[in-house]
Amino acid sequence: MGRSVLRRLREDGHAVRTLLRPARASPNLPRGVSTEVTLSSLLDPRGLRASLVGVEAVIHLAGSEKQAGREDPMAADVEGTRNLAAAAADAGVRRILYLSHLGANRASAYPLMRAKSLAEEHIRQCGVPSTILRPGAVFGPGDSFTTWLAMGLAISPLVFPIPGDGSTLLQPLWVEDLATCITWALEEPATSGQIYEIGGPEFLTFLQIVRLVMQVTGTRRILAPVRPPYLRAAAWVAERLLPRPPLTTIWLDYLAANRTAEVGTLPRVFRLQPARMEQHLDHLRGRNWGWDLLGRQFRPQAEE
Question: Using CA atoms, how far apart are residues 171 and 202, in angstroms rounded to an integer?
């Protein structure tokens, strides 16, 4: 998401500073796009204040989703967002846009959804005008959704497990459409103080999405329904054995309930007709996803 938003902001003529946390690997920034870079953890208030000097608006995309099993969402999402919001207020930032999740709710049974809701509260209470977007499952090159599905399918021996009957409804949103919404919301004063739940133009079951990924990647597997508690146990083990597992407890939490929004929000509020999922899956073609998954376990993780 960060790469797409960065490109869109530069295309619109904005000067951009990118906040990255310190890491061993080189940051995965888009080629040919100029940006200032500053390094700081979200848990470092002093580093955040220094990074925000001269900044007019903050787009907060960071979260714990890609650190499943190794990072507490309460620390990464809640404490990190509280620090960033406080630093933004101290630095005189004029606007914050926060990317949350469909299903964010303080009373949720799922840790990530509770964390996102608490993070939203810190954004709203910091005193800086803010906009909160709650998107559906975002897909595109380098995502944590379709690419990891492709990897999981590639390494599955003939049978691919599906949580329950695979009937959970999702509303996939193309990353470039999300980037358009973010940049438009940042420039539109009427979106200040608002929370928008957004998704793509169609409701798809998880089973339909898996079959679509299989079709695009040319993978043939038997799709077998498995009770979620068994998959959760497998995900717990995978998170502790692999640096970047294809199956995580966070994704199982996400698939435990329908994640949909009103279909007309993007055309009505953002004047955008979102793309259908099947139109933008070319990033899955022509790759050996099994080898890709293996390589990711040994490469230092870069900021994405």
Answer: 6
Q: Kind and range of the H or E element at 282?
A: none
Task: Assign 117 to helix, strand or coil.
Answer: helix
Q: Strands (DSSP E) along 79-121, which ranges?
A: 95-99
For 233, phi and psi rounded to 5 degrees?
A: -65, -40
Give the separation between CA 56 and CA 53, rounded to whole angstroms: 9
CA dihedral 171, 177, 181, 183 (to 10 degrees): 150
Are the C-beta atoms of residues 107 and 100 closer than 8 Å to each other? Answer: no
Compute the residue count for the chain. Answer: 304
- Listed in sequence order, the residues at least 6 apart from 169 whose beta carbon sits closer than 8 Å to its beta carbon are 203, 204, 205, 258, 259, 260
Q: What is the pLDDT of residues 53-65, one digit of tens each?
A: 999 999 999 876 6
Check: CB of residue 97 under 8 Å from CB of residue 130: yes
Residues 23 and 43: their CA atoms lie apart, in Å, by 14
Spell out the CATH class of 2-298.
alpha beta
Beta bridge partners of 173: 138
CB contact at 8 A, 10 and 47: no
Q: pTM for the full model?
A: 0.91
Would the CA dihedral through 261, 263, 267, 272 be positive or negative? positive
Structure tokens at 37: 């870079």
What confidence tens digit (pLDDT) does each residue in 118-176 have?
999 999 999 999 999 999 999 999 898 999 999 999 999 899 999 999 999 999 999 99
Closest CA to 237 of 252, 229, 248: 248
Q: What is the DSSP letter of 259?
A: B
**Domain range list for the chain:** 2-298
Assigned token pair, 109: 């049974």
